[in-house]
Amino acid sequence: MSIKAENIKYIYSEGTPFRTVALDDVNVEIKEGDFVGIIGHTGSGKSTFIQMLNGLELPTEGKIIVDGTVVGEDKKKLRAIRQMVGLVFQYPEYQLFEETVAKDVAFGPMNLNLPQAEIDKRVKESLELVGFNYDKIKDASPFDMSGGQKRRVAIAGVLAMKPNYLILDEPTAGLDPAGRNEIFAQIKKLHDKSGVTVVLVSHSMEDIAKIANRVIVLYKGKIHMQGTPKEIYSNAEELKKIGLGIPQIAEIANELRKKGFHIKSDVITVEEAKVEILKELRRRKNV
């Protein structure tokens, strides 16, 4: 079970003076259970790529294969693919419209003509997966909630469709630090608890470092790098060359190493840095 992108090319405005190659020869496999972070500048092709994963956009060349089915080859199968690959856009809370949280989350399953008992079960499970107490939240108005809570309700609405893959496009855009931390924590818990495959587009190097097990770097429509967070962020100079960077804590660790501190070169999170700095302070105390 996986999503494969094979030799993907996507061209906007083909045959006009505004012709733009958004993606060029992209080859990627997202395996079942993965937590993949996608990073890159605005215009690097991130949003175009993830919209292809459930058939909202079809490649100009190449193909996307979801669990063995070529996306777009049979139009009748597109609806099933879109149920398998749930896509959460930026600012998904703008799509909330029902008077209660439970009704909003139930909207998608209702359109599948499921029995009411199954709809209720999915609503409860999905809200609990994103960290809510179902009984306390089900009758609340989504419009009275904080930005982070609204976003979690919107994600629950996608989860209620029972996707095999969850694709999130900048899920913390516009949130304050508390809301951002809340969303990332719930996405990590969701992946750990349900095993759903997650693809996350984010500009936050720190958060990608903490929660993804694989990172894809897009640059000018091409795959520039892919690997584990430690593999990617160890290429600090290369990332800077293309205008990205590494987590701030990794930068601090680099500076400490230059000053003679014995800190491992693959430190990319605050937790790892804390362990290394305490070890070094103990070492210096005992010298």
Write a concise keyword list for the protein shown above.
single chain; 287 residues; alpha/beta; Rossmann fold; six-stranded mixed β-sheet; four-stranded antiparallel β-sheet; 12 helices; 10 strands
Structure description:
With 287 residues, the protein is α/β, with parallel strands linked by helices. The chain folds into two domains: 2-243, 3-Layer(aba) Sandwich (Rossmann fold); 247-287, no CATH class. Helices cover 41% and strands 22% of the residues. It is built from twelve helices and ten strands. The protein has helices at residues 46-52, 78-84, 101-110, 116-129, 134-137, 147-159, 177-194, 205-211, 229-233, 236-241, 248-258, 270-286; strands at residues 2-12, 20-31, 35-39, 61-66, 69-70, 85-88, 165-169, 197-201, 214-219, 222-227. A six-stranded mixed sheet has the order 6-7-8-3-9-10, with helices on both faces. Strand 7 (165-169), helix 7 (177-194) and strand 8 form a beta-alpha-beta unit. Helix 4 crosses helix 6 (147-159). The protein is globular. The termini are far apart. The model has no long low-confidence stretch (mean pLDDT 88).
